[in-house]
Amino acid sequence: MQFVIVTGMSGAGKSITLKMLEDIGFFCVDNLPPVLINKFAQICFSPESGINKVALGIDIRGGHLFTELLTETQKLEKEGYELEVLFLDANDQTLVKRFKETRRKHPLVKEGRIQDGIDKEREMLSEAKQRANYIIDTSNLLTRELKVEIGKIFLEGHDYKNLIITILSFGFKYGMPVDADLVFDVRFIPNPYYIPELREKTGNDEDIKNYVMKWDVANKFIDKLDDMVNFLIPNYINEGKNQLVIAIGCTGGKHRSVTLANELYKRLAHHNYSVNCYHRDIEKDAKHK
After folding, report:
1. Of 8, 141, 273, 281, which cross-links 171 as Cys (Cβ 3.0–4.6 Å)?
2. Per-domain residue ranges for the chain?
3. CB 259 within 8 A of CB 212
4. Rounded to the nearest 10 degrees, what angle do helices 69-78 and 37-45 cross at?
5. pLDDT digits (tens, 9 = 90+) for 39-49
6. pTM, whole model, 2 decimals?
């Protein structure tokens, strides 16, 4: 029996995660009061139930009842039941944006600022997050990417590291990414922009990749960056970090940064981490002409 409790921040994607789990064979129940978890588990674990995979969505909508979550899960574990907790998270900026886009009120703040509700919820969920077996930060995840992460955990049985790495190329002339944890400036590498036949191409094209990577300084940089990131990752995991955004910038975000972001992605993708690569400004030069 696989018994999963899905919880986390309001707006982080719990509802869509439950739908994804349902699609892969889980019997899903949303917003079950925590005080009923024990009885529900007894029914599901009984041989007559015919259920072998269960996911419960439990969130702050239950108000004061949510405080019973840890108590009830501890009871289940003492009684010999095995359960897992999946915690969905996102940064404050993303959560505020999602609430505004859907015109929803935060469940903890009927009147007032969304940010106040997010702050209260983070405090209330701090213990649940510490208890979680899996933490997925959805701040930079598309729906299809979240589906991949769910599949890795509950279909493929990966040794999930609770860290999603986003490699982001960008152009300094369009501003630095506000959510970056690590920022690297690669404007010291010769710029293909000044070669007419290369100017309109991007770092996704073979000609640009070959031009950028023919320089020793580019190869030394990516080797050193790869070595440093691989040193940092396990230390970040030990500190409980679950989202790492590595930003690589050049002037316009079209040539050098794209090439080196792709190179770093190739080096990290074979590790047992979740790695995504985005090119924020790759098309902006064409739009601004």
Report:
1. 281
2. 2-154, 164-287
3. yes
4. 40
5. 888 888 888 87
6. 0.68
List pLDDT tens digits, range 137-186.
898 888 888 898 898 888 876 566 667 889 999 999 999 998 899 999 99
Helix (H) or strand (E) holding 8: strand 2-8
Question: Which residues fall in the annotated binding site for ATP?
Answer: 8-15
Angle between helices 14-23 and 143-154 in degrees, nearest 10:
60
Residue 112 DSSP code:
S
Residues annotated within a binding site for GTP: 59-62
| Other CB atoms within 10 Å distance of the CB of residue 215 | 14
- Other CB atoms closer than 10 Å to residue 163's CB: what's the count? 21
Tokens encoding 74: 């501890």
Please tell me whether residue 51 adopts helix, strand or coil conformation: coil
Q: What is the pLDDT of residues 187-209, one digit of tens each?
A: 999 999 999 999 999 999 999 99
Residues that constitute the known binding site: 8-15, 59-62
C-alpha angle 68-138-145 in degrees, rounded to nearest 5 = 125
Coil, helix or strand for 55?
A: strand
